[in-house]
């Protein structure tokens, strides 16, 4: 129905030529805009209701006294269902450390939270199918767990800013109980608030995706980032680092890149770099960790993402 509506606007209302680059880009833009915002509205509302039962403080409490390996797995899993944006990285980091959560476990959560975003999972499912979505979830969790374990084993607590260990976050960890009607109202308000904050970024991302879909020749991407180019994955990671976007915002671009023949592993590497290794994220984290730890974190993440990219390019 949405695709028919997009075709009606482009070819019947605007009377544009079928098969032309501009009409193809515009049809992609209208269709993806309608589909993504519809999915976002539904998913954000449902997740907001669930999230009302799961505060960041409660998440910290669940992880405070777990063994390292168990904690990494639980932290990565909780990062999927309780995602927080980059702006939450500093208070969450402080809260986790103050609560006694091991450093490696904390990083597993911080990696999984933006990378395996539940909104992105639903959008990926709708745009690219369940197979790629499953790969995305699996690789994101593996990267988060292994990276957290490595950081934990390296014993890098000395490179956390000293004030993080002395700050007091307070004793109250649970918000007052809410009625279900109140949770629904909060979910509605949260949905509108999030859409107001991200709509422009989503539209810009869809516009970029539409341009790629309509104007970038297939052989261009295959030539410079195709399966025969050994440097395609590192180049995708390098291109992704300066960008700043949520996983939901980058998906329209991912969809367009895959439709143009870019290898799945290369696209996954690009997506993970944007969501979990972005330069703005590094700047925020530098407020609570020193440069050596930031460099170790960035190096482990870069290596992990590149390995994931090459792995999936080789099996798909």
End-to-end Cα distance: 31 Å
Residues in helix, % = over 70%
The percentage of residues in β strands lies in under 5%
The description of the largest β-sheet is: none
User: What is the multimeric organization of the chains shown?
Assistant: single chain
Tell me the radius of gyration.
21 Å
Mean pLDDT: 77
**What is the string of helix and strand elements?**
HHHHHHHHHHHHHHHH
Structure description:
- There is one protein chain.
- With 316 residues, the chain is mainly α.
- Helices cover 75% and strands 0% of the residues.
- The protein is globular and about 65 Å long.
- Helix 2 runs antiparallel to helix 7, helix 4 (68-81) packs parallel to helix 6 (103-115) and helix 7 runs parallel beside helix 13.
- It contains 16 helices and no strands.
Which helices and strands occur, and which strands form pairs?
Blueprint: H1 2-13, H2 21-51, H3 56-63, H4 68-81, H5 89-98, H6 103-115, H7 118-128, H8 130-153, H9 163-166, H10 180-215, H11 218-225, H12 232-240, H13 247-259, H14 264-276, H15 279-285, H16 291-315
Helix pairs in contact: 1-2, 2-7, 2-10, 4-6, 4-8, 5-6, 6-8, 6-14, 7-8, 7-13, 8-16, 10-13, 12-14, 13-14, 14-16
């Amino acid at each position: 129905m949405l695709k028919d509506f997009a075709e009606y606007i482009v070819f019947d209302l605007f009377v544009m030529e079928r098969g032309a680059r501009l009409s193809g880009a515009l049809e992609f833009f209208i269709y993806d805009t309608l589909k993504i915002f519809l999915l976002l509205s539904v998913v954000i509302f449902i997740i907001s209701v669930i999230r009302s039962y799961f505060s960041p403080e409660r998440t910290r409490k669940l992880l405070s006294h777990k063994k390292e390996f168990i904690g990494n797995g639980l932290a990565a899993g909780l990062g999927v269902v309780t995602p927080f944006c980059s702006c939450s990285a500093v208070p969450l980091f402080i809260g986790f450390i103050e609560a006694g959560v091991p450093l490696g476990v904390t990083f597993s959560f911080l990696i999984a939270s933006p990378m395996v975003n539940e909104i992105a999972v639903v959008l990926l499912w709708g745009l690219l199918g369940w197979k790629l979505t499953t790969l995305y979830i699996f690789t994101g969790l593996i990267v988060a767990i292994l990276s957290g374990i490595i950081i934990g084993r390296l014993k890098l607590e000395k490179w956390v800013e000293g004030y993080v260990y002395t700050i007091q976050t307070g004793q109250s960890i649970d918000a007052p109980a809410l009625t279900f009607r109140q949770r629904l109202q909060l979910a509605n308000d949260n949905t509108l608030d999030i859409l107001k904050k991200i709509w422009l970024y989503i539209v810009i991302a869809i516009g970029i995706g539409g341009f790629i879909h309509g104007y970038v020749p297939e052989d261009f991407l295959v030539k410079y980032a195709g399966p025969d180019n050994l440097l395609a994955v590192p180049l995708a990671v390098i291109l992704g680092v300066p960008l700043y976007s949520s996983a939901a915002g980058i998906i329209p671009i991912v969809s367009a890149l895959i439709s143009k023949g870019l290898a799945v592993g290369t696209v996954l590497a690009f997506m993970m770099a944007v969501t979990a290794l972005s330069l703005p994220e590094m700047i925020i984290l530098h407020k609570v960790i020193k440069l050596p730890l930031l460099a170790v974190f960035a190096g482990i993440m870069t290596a992990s993402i590149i390995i994931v990219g090459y792995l999936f390019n080789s099996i798909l």
